[in-house]
Amino acid sequence: MIQVEEKLYQNRYRVDEGRPHIKIKDREICSLCSHKICTVLCPAGCYRKGTDSAVSLITDGCLECGTCQVICLEHKNILWEYPRGGYGILYKFG
Amino acid sequence: MGLSILFAEQKGERFTMAEGAEKTKSSKRKKIALDPKLAEYRGIWVFIEQEEGIAHPVSWELLGRARYLATTLEVEVAAVVFGESQEKVEKITAEALSYGADKVYQVVDPALCDYRSDPYTDCLVNLVRKYKPEILLLGATALSRDLASSVATLLETGLTADCTELSIDVESRSLEATRPTFGGSLLCTILTLNYRPQMATARPGVLPIPTAEPGRKGIVIREQMQIDEEKILTKVLSFIPEPYKTAEKLSTAEVVVGGGRGLKQPGHFALLRELADLLGGEVGGTRPVVQAGWLEAERQIGQTGKTIRPKIYIAVGISGAIQHRVGIEKAGMIVAINSDPNAPIFDYADIGIVGDFLEIIPALIRVLKKRQSTKTELHAKDKPFEIELK
Fold this sequence. Notes:
Chain A is an alpha+beta fold. Chain A is 21% helix and 17% strand.
């Protein structure tokens, strides 16, 4: 099976090192969240279920679709911004 | 100037010389007759890089290669040694002769003490103009890359930087300098057809160091240069040694132990550190572990981190996503330790171990320590590498 990373590798990014544009407000809330829908719906697989019921977020592959912010209805636990100008996903022939 | 890109192929699909390459060459190569006044250029020169009387090993690697190229061209190999005192230069000259130089050109002047672009460039350009070598090779180090570019510009000839392979096209007597480009995704072979000398810098560590023959004799030519210290704009005020920062050694380490999310806890990096220390290597990691704060950002390996080319890369608990793969695929050997047999890293690892790193790494450490303590010369072929698991 093709991993999502393989497909993301086809994209062009300019990663803003050390300045993730999406943050989880309170990690405790994620541990309590039962469905962790962000880990299922993120098209770039930015959200991963950790071993200890935590959620890890790595924004490097983010496609800036905004799904995660919208679906975290119950807890509103995501602080979502676009990356700075010139950073993030740079769609070529998008 | 004077360059023609001969053929560039996808890495891994390079033609063998016997088959495809011949066809590609004859169909694509332009026939250029060398300017008659350049035809008298003969011989292969290697610039011996030295700092404080110690030569950089890449110089010996180049001498070995030059020896081989010289056999094809039926010419002599000469070394060029600069230095501030006769004593230091003599020591390096003797070494250069032992590594295969037939001739050594020496320039001794107090102004050549520390490396500076101006005097080094002038001396080398003057030597080349006087003795007319066919090929001039330098190491692709910070020092020599600086020197090579200014020399090539003054001589108005072609220079191929950071080559990984040097050979001779017998038909046209030209140097085929092959170098990776576009971050290593292409290999291109570049020829300097109508300018002399043909210049190339070679990446340190890709060519083998020849066996030295101590006491080998050769011709030594001492050149006196008029260097006017007043006219040199660069002055060396002091030399500040690089602060000891091991993370920076990651790109040049011969052994790298990399850890990924599979380590589960930041504390487990201590195990990798121990293994790396035993092997004289460095520790690196993937994006997720750096992001999680388990490892400093300078130790990140991969697309947005460092690209490394160690002799051995040991990937522990790394799934091997392509973003990591691009940073390690130039390693000589990749050893993967992962509990998931379906991890993509096993698709490109040379040695794959499916298992728990918490058993395997300590076992490896035990074996290595045992070897060090017994201090017996054990080679892989004499005794198999035995690992006892708990």
